Amino acid sequence: MNLQYMRLTSSLFLLVFIALLTISCQEKNGSQDVKVNSAEFEEPRTIPLEFSEPKQINWEVTDMNDFDRMNERKVNIQSFPRKPFYPDRFIPLKTPMTTNEVLFESLMDSSLNFSELPSIKIDFKTSLLASLKKIKAGLPKIEKNSTLGILEFSEDQGLPSYLVTALMEDSNGMMWIATDKGLTRFDGAYLEIFDFIESYFTGSQAIVNNILEDQNGRIWVYTSQKGIYVIDLKVGLVSNFNLVGQNFNFNDNCSMIMDSEGQIWVGTIQDGIYIFNSSNDTYKHISQWGPNNNRNASKLTFDQNGSLWVGSASGLSEIDIQSGKIRTLEEPFNTSVAPITGLFTDNENQIWIGTAKQGVAILNSDRNKISSLGTEQGVGTSIVHFSEGPDQTIWMSSSEGVFVYNKNNNRLKNLNSSDGIIDDFINTTTFDSEGQLWIATQDGINLFDLQGLAPIYLNSSDGLSGPDTWSFFEDSEERLWIGTRQGLDLYDPSKNSISRLDINLGLPKANNISHKIQRLSANQILITSPGFGFGIYDEVKENIQYLTSNQGIITVFPSSSIIDSKGRLWTGSFINGNVELIDLEKKEIKLLSNLNGIIGDIVWGFAEDSYGQIWAGTDLGINVINPEKNTVSYLMENGELSQRNTGAFFKDEEEKIWIGSRSGLLIVDQNANSLTEINTENGLSNPAVYTSYGSNGKYYIGTGNGFNLLTPNPEKKSQGKFGYDLKSFEKGQGLIYTDFNADAVIEFNNKLWWGIETEALTITNIPKKDSVEIKTFISGITISDKPQNFFDRDNIVRKYPDLDTIFSADLDTFYLANTIPKQSDWLQENDVKWDSVSGYFNLPVNLEIPFEHNYLSFQFNSVQLSNQDKAKYSYYLDGFDKDWSKVSTNPFSENYRNLPAGKYTFLVSSLSPEGLWSEPAKISFTILPHWTNTWWAWVSYLLVFSAIVGAIVQYRAKALKKENLILEEKVKHRTSQLNESLENLKSTQAQLIQSEKMASLGELTAGIAHEIQNPLNFVNNFSE
Predict the structure, then answer these.
(1) Nearest CA to 764 among 786, 785, 745?
(2) Picking from 584-593, 820-829, 1012-1021, which range would have the lowest pLDDT averaged per residue?
(3) For residue 322, what are the CA distances in angstroms to 111, 112, 300?
(4) Which residues lie below 8 Å from residue 301, measured CB to CB, with a gap of 6+?
(5) Partners of residue 403 on adjacent β-strands
(6) Residue 1004, pLDDT above cutoff 70
(7) What CA–CA distances, in Å, run from 375 to 244, 381, 394, 412, 565?
(8) Which residues are registered as beta bridge partners of 371?
(9) What integer best gives the mean pLDDT of the chain?
(10) How far apart are CA 269 and CA 249, in angstroms?
(11) Within 10 A of 564 (CB to CB), how many other CB atoms are there?
């Protein structure tokens, strides 16, 4: 029986083991061998190029000799009245800067031995960092009625307050923004709000002067009223050190800078200079360094030689850190530098000194001259902060906006609220790593991407005849002709002037339509004057001829025109589909219309192909005219006549014809006999294309909602794909106006000049290839709808061995260093576990989540501080998803609900502006089995099951044994009865046998007697 029980139990264990193995194999385990395969847009569709059968056309011919000769008159454009014109708005200084000599090297008033300064341990008050409030930031909004492509980033986008006092980009590209209601970290997608800065006795939160990052990655925050805070994001601590006497001596607008060795220098108003050693959290204090400085050291900067420059109410001091020599330049030197409100070292090692009296003083790199950029030059206010742009410009913050000085040409401009700046009072400016300028004001932040388009908007107040621009032309003297609905202007960059041409050239036109300018011949410029005809200006002869109805032309109000390769003029009209061919050399005019071959009523545009054919786009299709064979055919699409409303034509270097229509862009490749269509599903900003233009290998497509840039990509072409990269530019890139005028674009003076809508001529930078490598971060995890913060608090004691007491985030409880809770209450209560944290955003390592909380989502970013609207992502949960997600602008994943137990890896990648996917960011985690499905539960099940089976087996065994005993008794009794019955049976059988034997004997005897009797009877009978 024991052997049977053991065999049964072993079998049960084997069955349970197999079941556990099966269950464990069914748990989800990620492969982690995945690559991004998402596509942002569909590939453009290419079909064979197809035309209808050519049909013969009959021109209506007019002999110009039957009409008047063209009128002609002498003109001198150089003598036309001029106005100053500065498209970039940098204007010459009102008067040249004045320069004073100063023998700075000869100044000497004291010395200082830094090695003798005592090192004092910083008496930090340290507390736990509270869980951060994290919100998705809104996209910056465009500033309407602005003269610049400036964006606004303020409370509407999620900042805790309008008043912004300090900015700093850390080493990972995150922007730290200080407001009067909290410190914020911005990663391009989310705002994380820190709420640890204390209030001072007025009840207001202490104002932040400066923010910087030390060599250990900690963030230092210098406040006017509550000293310095140091944030250690890795372990989740914030420490505060209140400067001596600061409770009553506020340090408004004081400097905090870091030297090459990582020491942090802090200026004060009445307490000298503090030097913090961030490696061991000690400081040195310089209370006095000269007889007249009154312990005032509000402004600090280091020059390229390592000397410290101190600006104060009494003047400017240089402290040589190595020798300890101190030189001070004071008011008696007649330099007008004191009191100092701003201090900065530029890339030429010049010292820029903002003053409270008048503008700026500039100390040259040789330290022997000081120049004045003040009221007489155009800067008549106090300058409180400086930043240097990537193009040799100095941006100066003031209460009258931002003054920008161009060191290359000694020009100046002032940007203020009339230009789109939110507020005239500028607290500070900074350039991020992408070249975008951040302007902190009393009313929010302005963003101006100087490395992007950086649009400038011009109108009649800048000198133009009008803002509604429809035509550009560059002449042989590198002057720009500008045709607007209000008139015709000529911009001469060499003279920084603009002059009105249409009136002086005698070229009247109809209202609400623009002049058009194009090259007629080597020396002649053709000027279209709708309603009047044409003017032909000869640059060499300096005369103008007029081509009007008096010379026989029919279309004096042309809708479009082109000069073909033979110098002939083709014009289109707004009615009847009229196409007029004017041959000035032959004195001949030919006319086609929709009565004799043209399809459509309005002829919007022309192009000439490499075969000398003229393509005429109308409101009903595309006509292809062969003037040599006198035939016309029509573009076909998918076996039918194309009925696209077209007009924006351009022929590129490869003889391809780009055609803009109201329903997409067409690229005609006659060599490859192909027609490619590009539309919104392929990345086009808008289906309505009004402008197609190419310059220096770049192709610009102006649409009804921004423009697209297409650049050739040989690699794609070799793979049989569409051979261009496509980028879009819209309001997020600073374009206030996005509905582009037809064919109104030119590249001039390394800028793009656009006609957009009716409000302003727009000048933008030429888009550059984005060389910044996109890096993707997973910035947060939400578990069971609760955003989580993870810290490496196990390392607090190791990192801060002298730290004995730590306060709670609310400062109402304190902990000993070895009793600090590792995790938040929610994580602790719900048994979420991890080993450590890694990366900038403290992602948990070996994260284990109980099955009850198998509801997750993820937040991520690509740290795109500029072009935030272009940030795109694709993500993949390895172990659950079958493929990468569709490309999306959302910086968060879907909610993953009811994930099965198992191991997972979440991956996310960002798409760069150049169309390249970043290296995926990833985090691995484990969803633990439900307690009913854990190994110990199954062991318990096994033990209980085994016990139950054992009890049943034992009970059954006893019952069987009892039954066996009863059965044995029954068997014995039955056996006895059977033996007795058997004996009885044998006796009866013997009696029966004996009886049978006697009966048989009787029968035999009777038979014998009968047989004997028979012969006797025979004898007796015979004898008778």
Answers:
(1) 745
(2) 1012-1021
(3) 11, 10, 17
(4) 255, 257, 308, 309, 311, 343, 344, 345, 351
(5) 396, 414
(6) no
(7) 38, 7, 17, 12, 57
(8) 99, 362
(9) 90
(10) 8
(11) 17
